[in-house]
Amino acid sequence: MSRYRAVPEESKFWAELDSNAHPVEVKAAGMYGYIEASFNGDGQLDPAATHRAQLAFWVEDLNSGNELRDIEMLRRMNSRGHPSIEWSVKKVSLLNRGRCRASGEVTVRGRTRSFEEDFKMSVAPGLLVLEGEHVFDMRDFGIEPPRFFWLWIEPRIKVGVRVVAKQVSET
User: Fold this and answer.
1) Could you give the CA distance from residue 109 to residue 140 in angstroms, rounded to a whole number?
2) DSSP state of 45
3) Tell me, what DSSP letter sits at residue 129?
4) Count of H helices and E strands in the chain?
5) What ranges in 27-166 are assigned the alpha helix state H?
6) What is the tens place of the pLDDT at every residue in 15-40?
7) Which of left, alpha, beta for 126 (phi over 0: left; psi -120 to 50: alpha)?
8) How far out from the chain centre does Cα 41 lie?
9) Segments in the chain below pLDDT 70
10) pTM for the complete prediction?
11) For residue 116, which of 90, 139, 96 has the smallest C-alpha distance?
């Protein structure tokens, strides 16, 4: 079992939201946490081993490039009461060609929801890179989509992560 620590400066989160006016993109850097995984002699994920991860980032690091929109987003997400977005991966299975499937939970605003999604994994000596996307409904986390007069945001939100993690131990 190898343990990897996310490199905050290189790990990224993004979200794409649709509105009736134009798409909105939100980004955050500074993801932190760990990943535990076992690999076989070919450098492939060991299907018989247990793999897990615990990752998070600070809500206040979210940035859409529009200060007013960001203030409203932080208010709706209750960033003071729930300062981080966290997810844990409890099960990983190997699919093919560097693709895996993860099952886990994500917590936003104190509400936890399960997810299952495919992701891409790249392995190099001492380094692990994970990339994946998933679509959530923000209302599942108690966040009502904003509506301002004739402008509105759709409730479905496509989120993505790119986690760059360096190996810190091996057992």
Assistant:
1) 10
2) B
3) E
4) 1, 11
5) 67-76
6) 999 988 889 999 999 999 999 999 88
7) left
8) 29
9) none
10) 0.90
11) 90
Q: Distance between CA 41 and CA 142 in Å, rounded?
A: 45
Q: Which domains does the chain have, with CATH numbers?
A: 2-170 (2.40.128.110)
Query: What are 29's two structure tokens?
Result: 């850097």
Residue 85's Cβ-count burial label (10 Å; 0-12, 13-18, 19+) is: buried
Q: How far is CA 81 from CA 67, 77, 99, 132, in A?
A: 20, 9, 36, 28
Backbone angles phi, psi at 71, to 5 degrees: -60, -45
The span from the CA of 132 to the CA of 41, in Å, is 25
| Chain-centroid distance, C-alpha 44 | 23
Give φ, ψ of 40 to 5 degrees: -85, -175
Question: Which amino acid, one-letter code, is at 31?
Answer: M
pLDDT, tens digit (0-9, with 9 covering 90-100), for 107-127: 999 999 999 999 999 999 999
127, amino acid identity: L
Residue whose tokens read 């001492």: 126
The amino acid at 88: S
Tell me the C-alpha distance between 32 and 82, whole Å: 16
List strand residue ranges (DSSP E) for 52-126, in order. Answer: 52-58, 84-94, 99-108, 111-124
